[in-house]
Design a protein that fits this description.
The chain has one domain: Nucleotidyltransferase, domain 5 (2-Layer Sandwich). Helices cover about 45% and strands about 25% of the residues. It has four helices and five strands, in the order βββαβαβαα. A five-stranded mixed sheet has the order 3-2-1-4-5, sandwiched between helices. Helix 3 crosses helix 4. The longest helix is centred in the last third of the chain and has 23 residues.
């Protein structure tokens, strides 16, 4: 019973998966897609869901600092509904405020070059979203 964590952006989707016990999140990949066309991400997500026996999804919900939902949050809510309908798995939206900034800080502290950071930042944010969710729900 694994969970997939997604950091959904307008051009890329960071992907992380949990271990079978739901204790740890591991970064998997970053998918390219063409928002708002869910079909541009569907096949790759299907492969990951099948390969990793995914039974639940957690999608980062970008809220404004005052906890309101803006356009990016609405886009994540729409993506969550489409994912749930397409794959018939439960989807949880998880507050992702500051996860991209935290991921950037971790990569900076690890002295990862700017070029490499750009390639892995979404995947790292997905790990932070999923790990935060797993920690809160154990």
């Amino acid at each position: 019973m694994k969970t997939i964590g997604l950091d959904v952006g307008s051009k890329t989707i960071g992907v992380a998966v949990s271990d079978a016990l739901g204790w740890t999140a591991q970064g998997l990949t970053t998918l390219k897609w063409e928002e708002p066309d869910f079909a541009t991400a569907k096949d790759e997500l299907q492969k990951i869901i099948d390969q990793h026996d995914i039974t639940k999804a957690v999608i980062g919900l970008p809220k404004n600092m005052n906890a309101t939902i803006g356009p990016r949050g609405e886009a994540s809510q729409t993506f969550a509904k489409e994912l749930e309908a397409a794959f018939n798995i439960p989807v949880a939206l998880w507050d992702e405020r500051l996860t991209t900034m935290a991921a950037e800080r971790v990569l900076l502290d690890a002295d990862v070059s700017r070029k490499k950071r750009k390639k892995v930042i979404d995947k790292m944010a997905a790990v932070m979203i999923l790990q935060s969710y797993l920690d809160a729900n154990q």
